Structure prediction request, 84 residues.
Amino acid sequence: MKTLKQASVRILIVATLFTSTAALSEEAKPKSEVVQPKTEVVVATKPVTDVLMQELRQQLSLNIKHQVNTALSHSVELIKDSLR
Prediction:
C-alpha cells in the first residue's frame, strides 16, 4: 500500500512538472500582432545663442575654481593635522 501511494505521488509530481512546463511554453510564445510605428514629429529647436554659451562657460569656470579651492583647502587641513 505504501509503495502504491509513493508511486502515485511520484506520478502526480512528474505530471505537474510536465503540465507547468507546457503552460509556461504556451505563455512564452510571441504574439503575432504587428505594431505599427508611430509617426515622428520634428520639433524646431532654437539655436544656442552666444550669450548663453558665454554664461555657461563662466558658470563652469567658476564652479571648477570653487572645487579646486575646496580640494586645496581640504588637503592643507589634512597636511596640518598630519604634521601635529
